[in-house]
Description:
The chain is α+β, with helices and mostly antiparallel strands. The chain has two domains: 10-87, Arc Repressor Mutant, subunit A; 94-228, Jelly Rolls. It has helices at residues 10-18, 23-35, 37-57, 67-75, 84-87, 219-228; strands spanning 94-96, 99-101, 123-126, 129-133, 143-149, 154-160, 164-170, 173-175, 178-180, 185-188, 194-198, 204-210, 214-216. The strands form three sheets. It has a six-stranded antiparallel beta sheet. Strands 9-8-11-6-13 form a five-stranded antiparallel beta sheet, covered by helices on one side. The protein has a two-stranded antiparallel ribbon with strand order 1-2. Strand 1 (94-96) and strand 2 form a beta hairpin. The longest helix has 21 residues, at 37-57. The protein is globular, with a radius of gyration of 19 Å.
Amino acid sequence: MNTPSHHLDDDLLLAYVTGAATEPLALVAACHLTLCMACRERATAAEMVGGALLDAAGPSDQLSPDALERMLARLDGDLPVLPADARAGADVPFVFAGVSLPRPLERYLARDNQADSRPRAFRFLAPGVRGIDLEVTAPPVVRTRLLRLNPGVEIPRHTHAAPEFTVVFAGGLSDGGEHYVRGDVRFRDTGAEHVQVVDPEGPCVALVVNEGALLPRTWRGKLVSLLFDR
């Protein structure tokens, strides 16, 4: 199994485990967890510690003010190792458009019309970029897409009106001095400027969740965004 180098942060992991994450971010977490044993073990630890905290609080008691901090501290310590039977089949992908994708994406890529067995197709978004919009429950400003970016494509310098989350499934891309490959999670906060460059060896396929608009910082970027934000 691939071992990602870039993982879910504590806030998103905790939101996912407790059911507080929005559907787009829950999909980000679920896809990464499918591909990352280390974060599955962190999620198991979070569930165990969270359950213990709730049990200790009792049915009517309030958790102590430092309960969350103590829980997160546990995540940085010794983590339980999932048993062998839990590891088996944890990464059972399905193939879509020639790419091995995490199972949580499967239902989002199925056609609404069950009589139509043809796979959904990537549509043109910008030169070198194609995508499929995924129907998730979220505010209208949130956009959730499966993207396919051609080798060597550069997304010009831009920032975002709200956070952006990416999970890479195939190929790789560079961003802000970091390199991201299969299973890696990339997070960019509101206002963070960056340039993304796809590896030259092959296309990059990734799940991208934008909680706000893309804000280009160059004229070329503005032209690209007119297409990309369609």
